[in-house]
Design a protein that fits this description.
Blueprint lengths: L5 H22 L5 H13 L3 E7 L6 E9 L2 E3 L3 E3 L5 H4 L4 E3 L3 H4 L4 H6 L3 E8 L5 E9 L6 H30 L1 H10 L3 E5 L5 E4 L1 H7 L3 H4 L13 H12 L4 E8 L5 E13 L2 E10 L1 H23 L3 E6 L4 E4 L1 H7 L3 H5 L3 H4 L2 H15 L4 E8 L5 E13 L2 E10 L1 H23 L3 E5 L5 E4 L1 H7 L3 H4 L13 H12 L4 E8 L5 E13 L2 E10 L1 H58 L2 H29 L6 E3 L1 H12 L7 E7 L5 E3 L1 H19 L3 E9 L5 E2 L6 E2 L3 E8 L6 H4 L19 H11 L3 E6 L5 E8 L5 H10 L8 E5 L3 H13 L3 E5 L2 H10 L6 E5 L7 H11 L5 E5 L7 H7 L1 E6 L4 H19 L1
Parallel strand pairs: 24-26, 32-33, 32-34, 34-35, 35-36
Antiparallel strand pairs: 1-2, 1-7, 2-3, 2-4, 5-6, 6-7, 8-9, 8-12, 10-11, 11-12, 13-14, 13-17, 15-16, 16-17, 18-19, 18-22, 20-21, 21-22, 23-25, 26-29, 27-28, 29-31, 30-31
Helix pairs in contact: 1-2, 1-6, 1-11, 2-6, 6-7, 20-21, 20-27, 22-23, 23-25, 28-29
C-alpha cells in the first residue's frame, strides 16, 4: 500500500491479533477443541493451513494430527514423518521459515503439493517441559511478521498443550490401569479421583502443588477442599450426572491451604477404576486466563471508545459480509445515520457500481489480504466525493471480521490536481527552455536542471542533482558563485558573464542570470545560463571581417587605379605592337638581319609587357585567367628569378627543367600555383633546407589525386615542388586542401593557399599528388594534361603561313588617335578600304549615312558618350546582320548574351595580336562574301 505508514499500523494489528488469540483459546470447548483451535489460529494469522499434532505412541518419529484446518474447512487427521518436515525444528522451540519452505524441505511432499511459502511452529510441552506435540501454520505467502506469529502460536500452544495433556491423561486412564499411575502422576493438571460416594480416592502431585495440601490430607474427604462450601451441593449434583456417564464442567473461585485465592476450571470425566464407576476431576488454574479475559473485556470497551472517536469513517463487516457497526465519523462523511447504515436495505440505496467495489475489497480481506483503494462514491444527498479506503482482517468477539477505514480525500485530490497541473506547467516550461536552467535551494544544492543544461554542460542529471559545486565555473570562480547565490537568496537578481568549462574540458563563454523564486514554499535561486561562445566568436569574426572589408576596399581602390593605368598602357602597347609588326614587314623587304633581331627583341619585350598588363587587369577586375599554350619550363625559370629574393639565404633553390610538351594554362594562375607551393615549402622548413623545382613529362602510370581522391592517367606534364622539411603527418595530409585549414599559428596563415592550388589545377583539368612521410620532406606534383605541340613549334607554323590579302570596306572606331592611326595603316596594308572615326557618335552618323558601304565594323568598347556595345546595337537597328568586332581590355565585364543581343560577332582583347585580328577579319569578311554569292 504505497504511501501508507505500515510501521505505525503494525503494532495495532499485532495487539488486535493477540487479543483475538486470547479470546479464541478461551472460547474453544468440547470434544472438537483442537479443530476449533486450528480454525481460530488460521483465521487470526491469515494463513491457509493450521494443525495441532501429538507425538504418536505407536510409531516413533511420527506426528499424529488432532485437528487440521485448511482451505476454509476442517480436514481429516493424518500422520506424517517428523524428520523430513520443519516441525522437527519446532519440537525444540519456536521455528519459523519466512520464505521458500518447500524448497528447503524437498522431501515433505505436502509442502510441495500445497505450494507452501512460509511456515511457523511451536512445541506443545507438559508441565515438566517435555514435548508432547506441535502446533503449526503453513502459508502460501511469506511470513512477514515472525514476532506476531510467535506470540499468537505461544498463546494457542498453552491451551493446546493443556488439552493434549488432559487428553493423554484421560486416554491413559481408559487404556490401562497399569499406565494409570504414571500418567496420573505425570499430568500437569490437578487430578482428583472420587468414588460413587464422592469420596476422594486419589490425587496426583499437581493437586498437591495447586492446593497446598498433601495427598494424605485429601484422601477420603467428600467435600471440595479447594472450592467454597456453598458449591458442595452443586458439585454433588454434577457428580451424580458424571456417574451416569455425562462429562461435567464448572468454574469456581478456589482457596489454597495458605488462604490465597485463584480461579479454577474443573471438568469431571466418568471412568471405571478397579471395576467400579468413578469420576476423575481435572482441575486447571485459570487465573491467568481470567485475567486475559478481563483485559479483553476492557479492550472491548477501549475498542468502542476508539471506534467512536476515530476521525476516519469506520465500518465493521462480519464474515457473512454484513455491516455490523459504523462510527459517528461514518455518519458525517456519508450522511447516513448508524441505524440506516446497518439496516439490510442500505445496500439498495448505494449505486451498484460503488457498492460492488467495496464488497470486493471485503471479500479479499476476509481471505486474509489487506487492501487499499481510492474510490468514487456518493453521499446521501447525492454529492460526489472521493474516499481512500483501507481494509484489514481482524478478530472481533472470536469471529473473523473486516475493518474498513475510509477517509474523505476530495479536497486533497483537488489540491493535488492543482499542484500537479502547476507542476506540469512548470516542468513543460522548464524543459522547453533553450537556455540552461538550474534550480538551487538555499544551501546551493542543485534541485533540478533542464535538458538544455545537460546538453551544454555535458553532464548527466545524476551527476549534478544534489551537488553544491558550481558546475560551469572554473575553480577560481567558486567564491564568485557563492557570493552571487547569497545575493539571489537574499532577493536580488544578478547578471554576469564568465568563462566556463564543460565536462569534457572544453571552454565556453557563458552569460549567467539568476533570479530569486519560491519553489514548494521554500526560497530557491533559478540560474539561467546561455552559451554565448558562438556569439563571442561571431563578434570577433565580425571585427575580423570588418578589417578584411577595409582591406578589400583599399585593394579595390588600388585595383581601380591599377586598372586605369593598365588600360592606358594597353592602348599605348597596342600601338607599339602594331608598329613593330609593320616594321617587321618592311624588314622582310629590306632583308636586314640585324634589324630583324632588334625588332624581334622589341617584340618579345612588348609581349612580356602585354602579359604584365593582363596580370594587372586580372588583379584590378578579378578576371579569371585565359588558358593558352604554355611551356612550363620557361615559366618556372622566369618565376625562379622572382622567387629567389623571397627566400632566406639559408634555403637553397635548385631547378631541374627537362623538355616537355606544352599545356593549356593561364600563365598568371600557373605562376600563382608555383608561388603558393614554394611559400608553403619555405614555411614548412622554417628557414633551413632546400627547395627543388622540376618540370618534365610524367611516366605513364595510374595515379590517385591527393586532394580529390580520384584515379587518373594519361599523357601528363609534371611540375614538382620538393622540400627537405619535416614531412606531413597523415591526419594533416587528409585535410590540408580544405579551405581555411592551417597548421600555422593564428595570424600567420589564411589556410587558403593549398585550396587555391587545388582549385586552379583542377580547373585546368589536372590533379595534385603529394609524396611525403614524417621526417622525409614533401613533394607536391602538379600533373596537367599535355597539349601536344610545343609553343615554339606552334609559333613557327604560324610564321610560315603566307600573309593573306583582304578585300572589303571596314569602319574602324577608337577614341585613341595613336591606335586609330595604327589601325588605319595596318588594315590598309592588308588591302582593305578603311574609314576611321574617333567616337561612337561619329561612327553611327557615318554608318547611318551609307549603311551599304561598310562590310564590317571594328570598334573599341570603352569610349565616352557612346560605348562600342551601344554602337553595335544601333548599327544592328540600322542594318541588321552587319558584322561587328568589339575589342577591349575588359572583355570579361560583358555577358555573352549581351554581346549576342547587340549583334557582336567576335570579341578581341587589347592589345590585339595582329595575327589574331587578321584571322577574325578574314573569317567574317569571307562569311559576307559567301552570303553575297
Amino acid at each position: 500500500m504505497e504511501g501508507f505508514d505500515w510501521d505505525r499500523l503494525r503494532p495495532l494489528l499485532r495487539e488486535d491479533a493477540l487479543q483475538a488469540a486470547s479470546l479464541a483459546v478461551s472460547s474453544a470447548r468440547g470434544d472438537r477443541v483442537f479443530q476449533e483451535l486450528t480454525r481460530y489460529l488460521a483465521t487470526i494469522l491469515g494463513v491457509q493451513v493450521a494443525l495441532v499434532g501429538r507425538v504418536s505412541h505407536d510409531t516413533p518419529g511420527t506426528i499424529q494430527t488432532l485437528g487440521v484446518y485448511g482451505g476454509g474447512a476442517y480436514r481429516e487427521n493424518f500422520e506424517y514423518a517428523l524428520e523430513v518436515t520443519p516441525c522437527r525444528d519446532a519440537m525444540r522451540g519456536f521455528a519459523v521459515v519466512p520464505r521458500d519452505v518447500a524448497a528447503l524441505y524437498p522431501q515433505d511432499e505436502f509442502l510441495a503439493r500445497f505450494g507452501a511459502e512460509g511456515y511457523a511452529g511451536y512445541p506443545l510441552t507438559d508441565s515438566a517441559g517435555r514435548a508432547l506435540g506441535v502446533i503449526a501454520v503453513v502459508s502460501r505467502q511469506p511470513v512477514d511478521d515472525p514476532q506476531l506469529f510467535e506470540s499468537v502460536l505461544k498463546i494457542f500452544a498453552v491451551r493446546a498443550a493443556a488439552e493434549l495433556e488432559s487428553k493423554n491423561a484421560v486416554e491413559a486412564l481408559a487404556a490401562s490401569e497399569e499406565q494409570y499411575r504414571a500418567i496420573f502422576n505425570a499430568s500437569a493438571d490437578s487430578l482428583v479421583l472420587r468414588d460413587a460416594e464422592v469420596r476422594v480416592v486419589d490425587v496426583n502431585p499437581a493437586y498437591e502443588a495447586m492446593s497446598g495440601r498433601r495427598r494424605e490430607e485429601a484422601l477420603g474427604r467428600s467435600d471440595l477442599t479447594m472450592s467454597p462450601p456453598e458449591l458442595n451441593e452443586h458439585v454433588k449434583q454434577l457428580h451424580a450426572r458424571a456417574l451416569a456417564g455425562e462429562a461435567v464442567q464448572f468454574e469456581a473461585l478456589a482457596r489454597r491451604r495458605d488462604g490465597s485465592r485463584f480461579d479454577i476450571e474443573t471438568r469431571g470425566v466418568p471412568i471405571l477404576h478397579q471395576g467400579r464407576p468413578h469420576v476423575l476431576y481435572i482441575g486447571r488454574d485459570i487465573t491467568a486466563r481470567k485475567g486475559r479475559e478481563e483485559l479483553l473485556r476492557a479492550s472491548e470497551e477501549q475498542y468502542r471508545a476508539i471506534f467512536d472517536a476515530s476521525a476516519d469513517a469506520l465500518v465493521l463487516w462480519d464474515e457473512d459480509m454484513k455491516r455490523v457497526d459504523v462510527n459517528p465519523a461514518y455518519e458525517r462523511v456519508y450522511g447516513y445515520t448508524r441505524a440506516e447504515a446497518l439496516e439490510p436495505a442500505y445496500a439498495d440505496k448505494v449505486p451498484s457500481k460503488y457498492a460492488e467495489r467495496r464488497r470486493e475489497l471485503v471479500r479479499r480481506t476476509l481471505a486474509g489480504e489487506r487492501c487499499h483503494a481510492e474510490l468514487d462514491t456518493l453521499r446521501k444527498d447525492g454529492s460526489a466525493i472521493q474516499v481512500e479506503v483501507r481494509t484489514i482482517p481482524i478478530q472481533h468477539r472470536g469471529r473473523p471480521h473486516v475493518l474498513a477505514i475510509s477517509r474523505d480525500v476530495t479536497e486533497r485530490k483537488r489540491a493535488e490536481a492543482a499542484v500537479r497541473a502547476s507542476e506540469e506547467q512548470y516542468r513543460a516550461i522548464f524543459n522547453a527552455t533553450a537556455d540552461a536552467l538550474v534550480l538551487r535551494d538555499a544551501q546551493a544544492r542543485v534541485v533540478d536542471v533542464n535538458p538544455a543544461f545537460l546538453a551544454i554542460s555535458g553532464y548527466t542529471r545524476e551527476e549534478v542533482v544534489g551537488q553544491s559545486r558550481w558546475i560551469f565555473a572554473l575553480p577560481e570562480m567558486a567564491a564568485l558563485g557563492s557570493d552571487m547565490h547569497r545575493r539571489v537568496i537574499g532577493g536580488e537578481s544578478v547578471r554576469f558573464e564568465i568563462q566556463g568549462r564543460r565536462k569534457d574540458g572544453a571552454l565556453l563563454d557563458i552569460e549567467m542570470r539568476a533570479v530569486p523564486i519560491r519553489y514548494r514554499g521554500e526560497p530557491h535561486a533559478l540560474g539561467m545560463a546561455r552559451d554565448i561562445t558562438a556569439q563571442k566568436r561571431a563578434e570577433a569574426e565580425r571585427a575580423h571581417v570588418e578589417a578584411q572589408l577595409r582591406q578589400a576596399q583599399k585593394m579595390e581602390a588600388i585595383g581601380q587605379l591599377t586598372g586605369g593605368i593598365a588600360h592606358d598602357f594597353n592602348n599605348i602597347l597596342q600601338s607599339v605592337l602594331g608598329n613593330l609588326m609593320l616594321a617587321g614587314e618592311r624588314v622582310e623587304e629590306l632583308q636586314d638581319a640585324k634589324l630583324a633581331r632588334y625588332l624581334e627583341r622589341a617584340q618579345l619585350s612588348a609581349q612580356r609587357a602585354r602579359e604584365l598588363i593582363q596580370q594587372m587587369l586580372t588583379f584590378s577586375r578579378g578576371r579569371r585567367g585565359e588558358p593558352r599554350m604554355l611551356a612550363l619550363a620557361p615559366l618556372v625559370e622566369e618565376a625562379a628569378k622572382l622567387l629567389r629574393p623571397m627566400l632566406p639565404s639559408t634555403i637553397e633553390l635548385a631547378l631541374d627543367l627537362r623538355d616537355a610538351p606544352a599545356v593549356r594554362a593561364d600563365r598568371v594562375q600557373a605562376e600563382q600555383v608555383l608561388l603558393n607551393l614554394c611559400i608553403n615549402a619555405r614555411d614548412a622548413m622554417q628557414g633551413q633546407g632546400s627547395i627543388s623545382l622540376s618540370v618534365g613529362e610524367s611516366a605513364p602510370a595510374d595515379h590517385v589525386c591527393t586532394s580529390c581522391r580520384q584515379r587518373f592517367s594519361g599523357r601528363l606534364v609534371e611540375l614538382a615542388v620538393s622540400d627537405t622539411g619535416p614531412g606531413i603527418v597523415p591526419e594533416v595530409l587528409d585535410r590540408m586542401f580544405e579551405p581555411f585549414f592551417s597548421t600555422k599559428e593564428v595570424g600567420k596563415g589564411s589556410g587558403m593557399g593549398l585550396s587555391m592550388v587545388h582549385g586552379i589545377v583542377h580547373e585546368h583539368g589536372g590533379h595534385v599528388v603529394v609524396d611525403t612521410a614524417p621526417g622525409q620532406g614533401a613533394r607536391f606534383r602538379v600533373l596537367l594534361p599535355a597539349a601536344g605541340a610545343s609553343v615554339a613549334a606552334e609559333q613557327k607554323r604560324a610564321g610560315a603561313k603566307a600573309k593573306p590579302r583582304l578585300s572589303g570596306s571596314i569602319l574602324v572606331v577608337d577614341d585613341e588617335a595613336m591606335i586609330l592611326e595604327f589601325m588605319g595603316e595596318l588594315l590598309a596594308n592588308w588591302g582593305l578600304e578603311v574609314t576611321l572615326k574617333s567616337s561612337g557618335a561619329e561612327a553611327r552618323q557615318a554608318f547611318a549615312a551609307e549603311p551599304q558601304r561598310f562590310d564590317l565594323v571594328l570598334t573599341d568598347n570603352t569610349m565616352p558618350r557612346l560605348t562600342g556595345l551601344e554602337l553595335a546595337r544601333q548599327i544592328r537597328g540600322i542594318r541588321p546582320g552587319t558584322p561587328v568586332i568589339l575589342y577591349t581590355g575588359y572583355g570579361e565585364d560583358i555577358a555573352a548574351d549581351a554581346l549576342a543581343a547587340a549583334g557582336v560577332r567576335a570579341l578581341a582583347r587589347k592589345p590585339v595580336e595582329p595575327a589574331e585580328l587578321l584571322a577574325l577579319l578574314a573569317t567574317h569578311l569571307q562569311q559576307i562574301g559567301n552570303t553575297l554569292k
